[in-house]
Amino acid sequence: MSDAVSPSRPLARLNPLKDQRLWALGVALLGASALFVFWGGAWRSAYILELRVVKLAGLLCVGSAIGVATVLFQTLTNNRILTPTIMGFDALFLLMKTILVFVAGVLALPVLGATPTFLADTTVMILATLAIFAAVLRRARHDIQLLVLVGVIFGLLFRTLAGFLQRLLDPSQFAIVQADMFATFSGMDQRSLAVAAMVMACFFLWLASRYAVLDVMALGRDQARALGVPYDRLQLQILAAIAALVSVSTALVGPLAFLGLLVTALTHALMRSHRHGLLLPAASLISCLILVVGQTVFERVFSLNSSLAVVIEFCGGLLFLFLLARGHIK
Amino acid sequence: MPIAYFATVIGLLALGTGSLFLGAQDLSLPQVWQDPGALQLIAISRLPRTLAALLTGASMAVAGVIMQLLVRNRFVEPGTTGTNEAAMIGLLAVTLLAPGLPLFVQMLVAAAAALLGTLGFLQLTRRLPPQQPLLVPLVGLIYAGVLYSVATFIAYQTDLIQYIGIWMSGEFSGILAGRYELLWLAGILSILVYFTADQFTLAGLGRGLAVSLGLRYGQVLSLGVATVSMVSALVIVTVGTLPFVGLVVPNVVSRMMGDNLRQSLPVVAGLGGGLVLACDMLGRVIRHPYEIPAGTIFGVLGAIVFLTLLLGRRSHV
Amino acid sequence: MIEISNLSYSIAGQQILDGINTHLQRNQITALIGPNGAGKSTLLGAIGRQVDINTGQIKIDGEDLQNITPQDQARLMAIVAQHLHVGSRIRVVDLLGFGRWPHAKGRLGPQDHFIIQSALAQFDLTDLENRFLDELSGGQRQRAFLAMAHAQDADWLLLDEPLNNLDLKHGRSLMAHLRQMVSEKSKSVVVVLHDLNFTLAWADQIVAMRDGQVVFAGPTTTVATSEALSDLYQTPIELLNLNGHFFAQYHR
């Protein structure tokens, strides 16, 4: 049987390290990072250097988190136009954050340090995601559009609920929540960053052993199950991973809706492949590149600070509509 | 049908009366006769507030139902088609470029911007495959998101962010006599819609069928889009927009009595007004003496109702 | 009479109709036949102004279609499309009411109600009149739209594959009803048909199309030959004469 259908050319073993495009991206990212850190002779001041390195680390963390999360999400939903944010993941984070702050206030818990707070946020986020999306998935698994629309409405619901709770908070509590409401790349906490990097490293290691299965999952649930992949279990695990990555990036900089879309569109255009072994690294590299270059241009050239997020959102949204108008969205 | 009309009228009367006596300062019936201050409170604050909630809810529900018939999709409303966001961009522009214009003129600019935004959305939906009805609201939400990010960017650069917050959260606590009268215009527009109800129902059956029955489809489309844009702009400048009103109310009514607007429009308007008023009253009670905006309460309740509709919907609808 | 001259239509670079010249006679049942993708539905749509033609002219009783107002046209011709996707929840009786729109503009008088009731009875829908369209089966919905076209009471009836979804009984009764409207009320019917046997049994005239062009046209009794039909469908078709009625045999 296998002889009868064996392809004329044996399937090349995938080795991302041999892909020139990935190397090129890596080199470009390295160059952009160096430019970001050393622009304007920053090596003369250890203080500025440290600030910039921390910020760069943050950008890289957020970039790869968003790139990977979006690719995973698009694989799960079999759809190239969706991002976790459209499904309300970041709104859920905001709600969870508000609830935590609210509960802590009611129970008069001491204000936790940045790192424990970060860990608590992420854990609660993963649990909440699993609870909600597992329940919704059971109802709407067969209809991906329904699933997404439900996600969108959940997003609106979470946002409104969060807004409602925020009205009940006192000003000092509200300040804690407000910090997470808008995307900004300044003022990231160093220790949280370190924890975030570790959390993400764990997930990436976990993913690295599974990228081949992801290729099969991209065929869709029925097909994947027919090929013997325990789709439902993996789906939950991947949802949890997405939740973790989104909460990492949201906790660090705030919600970014369309960056992921921009990234995956570019990734698919560049890689022309459906193999996750290539897609995942490419997506995280491209995502980091956009953030680092964007931030360099904005900070150094235009001396604008936190409007990069808005511009990325705008470009990503325009790209979406462009893809739609070109009929790429089905 | 008469039962639905009857229930609507009774419900509105009960809510309206309740609303007059509910608030930070409690009123009772005898007081109104004896105390001129109480009567004044009703005339200046409570009555305008009640009317504003009713007019807002009714006209937004009507705008929602028109949008749904024109797009031929159950899951759209001005809030998910970029109409509101475009209106906000228009308002921002007028605030920045020509501050001090009368509110009515500001509203007209906002309505013109809303019109452009809605037409853009209609243009986009033409390219969508008709077999996937849920793609329409999805695209609409993202389109709205893009427009919203434009609005936020402008507002951010010009320190007008708090304006966006006000326009986005519908609230009636600031309504006094003299500050809500524009809403009557929205009410009048809704009544005008009732006189053309058949044409909108026909348009909802699809362009081909409508045209073959002699409907001037283009005219009805323009009329509908203009009405929706005007209503959205009016509501935004006076009280701020409320999510889900235009989505939930028409869907609920359609379940009960179908989409023949001639029959269902009064109930759509009544239910819209009633629900918004009820949410406003709830907002006055929950955290007495503070107030929770009606938009917040409707957002939570509306989302839950809408999710039930979505997940509970029969497969063929 | 509907005269069609030099009618062409293309969409996205694809020629759907290619220089159609033909005429459709009053007081007849004219069947549009031909293989899939021949352009039959597009031709029907062009006559009913559902598609905007690129070049050419359609005249109805000597008057250019472009000069007729939509209202007048709706009184002149009723069209029932092939795909009857309706998103809104409308009751059957309300749908038929909209069939009276070109005449009553929404203010239905006793005469209109009489016509609606008789259309309901005619199409076996009286029991279903208060049902919503989305609660009907495909065949029932088809009948509802046919009844609406009937209630429109236009001179011309344009039907795109009306037999789709209809069972034997309702298919036959529809064709008999069309025949009756032609002979008793001097209506004219243009109908896209896929079933050759229905065509042979009921059509007075045939317009046969392939690749956007008219292959042959004329009275059924003269043009519907075994050779012509076999050539049209590119498949062997035998005509059998059974007691004076012709049957097409192409199944095996």
- Counting DSSP E segments of at least 2 residues, the number of strands of chain C comes to 12
Structural class of chain C: alpha/beta
Strand content of chain A: under 5%
Task: Give the class-level CATH name of chain C.
Answer: Alpha Beta
GO biological process, one term (chain B): siderophore-iron import into cell
Membrane topology (chain B): Multi-pass membrane protein
Family (chain B): Belongs to the binding-protein-dependent transport system permease family. FecCD subfamily.
GO molecular function, one term (chain B): transmembrane transporter activity
Structure description:
- Chain B: Belongs to the binding-protein-dependent transport system permease family. FecCD subfamily.
- Chain B: It is found in: Cell membrane.
- Chain B: One of its GO terms (cellular component) is plasma membrane.
- Chain B: It is a multi-pass membrane protein.
- The complex is a heterotrimer of chains A (330), B (317) and C (252).
- Chain A is 74% helix and 0% strand.
- Chain A is globular, with a radius of gyration of 20 Å.
- Chain A contains 14 helices and no strands.
- Chain A has one domain: ABC transporter involved in vitamin B12 uptake, BtuC (Orthogonal Bundle), CATH 1.10.3470.10.
- The two termini of chain A are 35 Å apart.
- Chain B is mostly helical.
- Chain B has one domain (2-311): ABC transporter involved in vitamin B12 uptake, BtuC, CATH 1.10.3470.
- Chain B has helices at 2-21, 29-34, 36-71, 83-97, 103-125, 135-157, 161-168, 182-195, 197-204, 207-212, 217-238, 245-257, 261-286, 294-312.
- By secondary structure, chain C is α/β, with parallel strands linked by helices.
- Chain C has a single domain, classed as P-loop containing nucleotide triphosphate hydrolases (Rossmann fold), CATH 3.40.50.
- Chain C has helices spanning 40-47, 70-76, 92-99, 101-104, 110-122, 138-152, 168-184, 196-202, 220-223, 226-233, and strands at residues 2-11, 14-24, 29-33, 55-60, 63-64, 77-80, 156-160, 188-192, 205-210, 213-219, 238-242, 245-249.
- The N and C termini of chain C lie far apart (39 Å).
- At the B-C interface, helix 9 and helix 10 of B face helix 2, strand 6 and helix 3 of C.
